[in-house]
Amino acid sequence: MTLYSISPEAMGFVLSGYTWSYLAGLPLIGILVGRFGPLLVMGIGSIVWGVATLALPLATTAVGFFLMRALFGFGHCMMIPAGAVSIRDWVGSHQRALAVGLIFTGGTIGLAVGSPSAAFLLENLGWEYPFYVGGALSLLFTLLWFTLYPREAPPGRSPSLEEESEPKVKKSRVPWLSLLRHRTTWGMAFSQMGYLYVYFLFITWIFAHLIIDWEMETWEAGMAASVPFWMGIAGTIGGGWVADYLIRSGVSKNTARKGMIAGGLMGATLFLVAAAYATQIWLAVTLLGLCMGSLRMTTASSNSLSIDLAPENAVAALASIQSVGGNIGGLMAPILTGYILGATGSFVGALVFAGAMAAFSACSMLFLVGHIGEEGDRMVLES
User: Does the pTM of the predicted model rise above 0.85?
Assistant: First the structure.
C-alpha cells in the first residue's frame, strides 16, 4: 500500500479480486466436476492458481494486482465442488466430517506457516518473494495431486460389480433452480456467508490490523498473525472429530451438525467483539486465535452438508451454491473493511461488524436449514 500509494478503500477491492472470479466460476465448475471428475478439474485449477501466484509481482498498479488476484480466484473455485465429490466417493457418512476437516486443514496450515514465512521473505528479500516461493510450492503440490490421487474405482463402486448387479440408469442433471426452491439451500448459503466474511477478514486484513492498530514490526506481525491459524488447525480437526464422534455415539446427525456449526459461529462472535476492545496485545492476539479456532470448528460439519443432504447427482451443485453464498461474504469482507478503516482509521468497527455477520450465520443455520437426516433422508429435487 505504501510503495504504490494504494488507499485502504482501493486495497479492499484489490484483496476482493480473488472472490469476484471465484464466484463467477462456481456455476460452471459444478457442471465440470460432475462431467470430468475431481482429478482433472482440481489439477487444472491448481496449475492456474500456482501460475497466477508466481506472476502477481509483474503487476505494479491496483488494477493489475486486482486482475492477478482474479486469475488466482478462478483457479481456486474448483476446490470445494471437487473435494465434495471426492469425499462422497471415498468416505462413509460416519467419517465425512473428519475427512472434510482434514482436507480444509491443509489451507489453514498454509496460512499458519505462510504468515511468518512471508514476513521473513518480505523483510529480507522483498515483497515479491512470498509470491515466488508460494507459487512454486503450489505447483509442486499440483504434481503431488496428479501423482497420488487414486485412479481405481472407490470401494463398493466397481463398474464391473454395478453392471452385474443392476442395469445402468442414466442420472439426470439437477438444475440449480430446483435446489433454490428449498429453504435449506438458502440457509446453507447464508450460514456460509457470515463464516467466510470472518475468515476472509482474517486472511486479507489481519496482518495490517496488527501493524496499524498495534504498531507491530513486520516480523512480529507475521508471528502474531500465525497464531489464529494454528488455533484454526486445531479447531478444524477437532470439530470434525467431535461431530463424527457424536454421530457414532448415537447423537442425531441433525443435532451434531447444527450444534457444531451454530455453536462455533456464536463463539467466534463473542471472541471477535472482545478482541476489538482488548487493551493489551497479548490478549487481543489470544482472542483472535480463539475466534479462529471457534470459527473453524464449524468447517467440517458445514462442508459435509451438501454430501449429507443432496442426492448423489446434485452434491457438486449444492456445494457450489453454498460456496457462492459464502463467497459473497468473502467478497464483502475486504471491501467493507477497507472502507471502515479509511473512515475511522482503525479496525474496531470492522471487527465488530464481522462478529455480527457470524451471529447472522448461526441464526441462518438454526432457523433456515431443515432436518439433517440419515443416509437415505435427502432433499427431493426435480430433475
Answer: no
The burial of 147, by beta-carbon neighbours within 10 Å (0-12 exposed, 13-18 middle, 19 or more buried), is given as exposed
**Total domain count, the chain:** 1
Q: How far apart are CA 307 and CA 244, in angstroms?
A: 14
Q: Distance between CA 91 and CA 304 in Å, rounded? A: 11
**Cα 126 to chain centroid, rounded:** 28
CATH of the domain at 258: 1.20.1250.20
Residue 49 lies in a domain: yes
End-to-end CA separation in angstroms for the chain: 50
Residue 381 C-alpha cell reads as 429435487
* Alpha carbon distance 73, 164 (integer Å): 43
Domain that includes residue 342, residue range: 8-148+176-367
In the block, which residue shows the cell 465448475?
29
Q: Are 361 and 231 in contact (CB under 8 A)?
A: no
Grid coordinates given for 137: 510450492
Task: List alpha helices for the chain, DSSP H.
Answer: 8-36, 38-55, 62-76, 79-90, 96-124, 129-148, 159-165, 176-180, 183-212, 218-248, 253-276, 281-296, 299-302, 305-309, 315-344, 348-367
The radius of gyration computed from the CA coordinates of the chain, to the nearest angstrom, equals 21
Pull the grid cell for residue 60: 505494479
Report pLDDT digits (tens) over 129-163: 999 999 999 999 999 999 998 877 555 543 333 33
Question: Per the structure block, which three cell numbers stand in for 336?
Answer: 467493507
Q: Work out the number of other CB atoms within 10 angstroms of the CB of residue 89.
A: 17
Is 65 in a helix, a strand, or coil?
A: helix
Q: What is the pLDDT of residues 223-264, one digit of tens each?
A: 999 999 999 999 988 888 898 889 889 899 899 999 999 999
Q: Give 169-220 pLDDT, tens digit per residue.
A: 445 555 667 888 889 999 999 999 999 999 999 999 999 999 999 999 988 9
